[in-house]
Design brief:
Layout (H helix, E strand, L loop, with lengths): L3 E8 L5 E4 L7 H15 L7 E6 L4 E8 L2 E8 L4 H18 L2 H6 L14 H9 L11 H10 L3 E3 L1 H4 L34 H31 L4 H24 L7 H18 L6 H20 L12
Parallel strand pairs: 3-6
Antiparallel strand pairs: 1-2, 1-5, 3-4, 4-5
Amino acid sequence: MSMILSASVVRVRDGLPLSASTDYEQSMGVQQCRKYFKTLSKKLAQLPDRCMLKAGQYNIKYSFISSLGVSYMMLCTENYPSVLAFCFLDELQKEFITTYNMMKTNTAIRPYCFIEFGTDNFIQRTKQRYNNPRSLSTKINLADMQTEIKLRPPYQISMSELGSANGLAYISASEFKGTGKISTGAAPHQRLEAITMPGIVSFILSLLCGALNLIRGFHAIESLLQVQNEGEDFSYVIAFFLGTAACLYQVQCYLFLYCTGWRNVKSFLTFSLICLCNMYLYELRNLWQLFFHVTVGAFSALQIRLRQPQGKSPDYNV
């Protein structure tokens, strides 16, 4: 029998559960699949705004959509129609956005602080309606959702992306059938948030530091050719050009439109390279120059870290 087993509302930033339906299904498969919930919730910020995860050995699947920093998740049987699943999630999203101020969801501290949305109110009633589609009082536009799913299919999350959740063994991707290509890398084509004013400042300062390093590097080469000195002077040239490359790479990391794998790690390593270059050049720079270059590098790394993948804005077909 195809049916929705449970639904919940989760904050994308940290996986904090905001609301959930009352679950009456207590089968072993459902209980085991719920153990993936926490792991999946913690990874929402790294995933596209519409995804599916199939736990093949239990014939159960997760579906969810994310918007404006909130994710709407559901657990259903594997044969439940995807079109109905995403219509259900879209209905939850519209109702939650119109009912609650997004500022409250961003500042919530306690789990399930909007529990009334799920247990006795909207989620529970809507779940009952969608578990008996013939009783739907309002006609849902399946044709539009079918078209949207064909044009922009849900991202199929592989079990390898979640790893082992709460001691559950890894399920091979070969168990998933009919789900299309399953990617094991980072979520594809996920746009980053818009550039902020502090980000523009860090971009300009990084370019300035890169230009200063480049100019000092050419001056060092000119001095090297004139004096015909060997060894230590040439190492200064290398340090200046490495500093230039590191500053320009930070600029590129921040301006890149899409989220890439290991972005934050690369940014941290680049900042470490800037620190090492300036430590080596301490004889050629005064204390304020060293402080300026290291501070700009740290500020740029922070801006790269703060620029997160963006959620999809809701489309109400207005």
